[in-house]
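User: Predict the structure for this protein chain, please.
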Amino acid sequence: MVRGSAIGLLAGALLCGCQQNSGWNGSMDELLHSQPKRFATVMQDPDKYRVQIIYTQIDRDAENRPRFTSYTYGVNPDQYFYPASTVKLPTALLALEKVNELAVPELNRDTTMLTDVASDWQTPALTDPSSPTGLPSIGHYVRKILLVSDNDAFNRLYEFIGQKPLNESLREKGYQNTRIFHRLEVARNAEENAKTNPVTFVDGDTVLYAQGAQISDTNYAHKEPILLGRAEIVDGELLNRPKDFSGNNVFALQDLHDVVQALIFPQFVEERRRFNLTEDDYQFVYRNMSAYPSESGIAEYSDSERYPDGYVKFFMYGGSAPTIPENIRIFNKPGDAYGFLTDCAYIVDFENGLEFLLAATIFTNANETFNDDTYEYDEIALPFLRDLGLAIYEIERAREREYAPDLSRFLKAILP
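Assistant: Here is the predicted structure, written as structure tokens:
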């Protein structure tokens, strides 16, 4: 469901006129320092907050082909941040890609996928009460990841792809600063994460494709310790030592930005960086990536108190706005854990004909203790990403464009 008039939004997307020059000088550092009401707390000590930002302007030519101009702040692939749920996006795309490349007759993203076990510590997935059919599928797992960042859905796609194929595929696509090698939310050691469950795709009683358990023979952990903080809580015990993140997932901000760029603009990035998706896959991903939980048709996501429109929309709306203006859509994948808060988005204003890419991460853990659930998300991190999104949006509203973008491809994805 789309709020307001779809025809009116399409007209705005196609007929938007040029805006006045913003006066911004192109420096992200200047932007952050020039707005102390929004950014003073963080900019007093940006190193403490480990801030990284990538803002990409998009200018179309007469044929609607985009040109990208990026501005950065603090971007450093060697400065670790825990990527949390952002790793779910490339995993979801690779799961859809794998379905296409299997090329099994009658097997598609909506085919029932049953996950079995090959070890006593593994867990099966034979039903999914949130699915229209009551059964799990690749497509429904992707929906749950994009709508509410479901952890189990990610784990099932991780198991379907396999640890080594997932990482080798991303490396072949050029995402060199990415390693996704453990499940989320459930505690598994390195050996267990290297082993993934058997899965079977069925149509009723007919087996369409069966994949046995997989074991990765590659160690994706960082060779040297990645030590952060001063303490961590392990099994209820406070240990006064830094936390070592060398055994945790890695997804550098530039790689995250580039994955979103490849998803949104597949024809305008290097061929190797693209994901092997059909146009229907793209529309499916766009629809669920930009949708609000209340639009999903999934009963458990209909609680607007738990899942407001701004849920998982960190830029501009801080993750909690009850409603979002009808002309704005945010195609994004955020993540938060251990005090790290990250988001990457393609943001569109259909009425004013605006579009831009924005990626950012911030760290808020004042007591430098991990696993104590005491992080300054609400006080510092979410307001920072909200205000960063608003500041960039204001630049976009003010800057000149020679040609208004045709955004109908993305509008099509959110039409009823």
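Confidence is low (pLDDT under 50) at residues 1-21.
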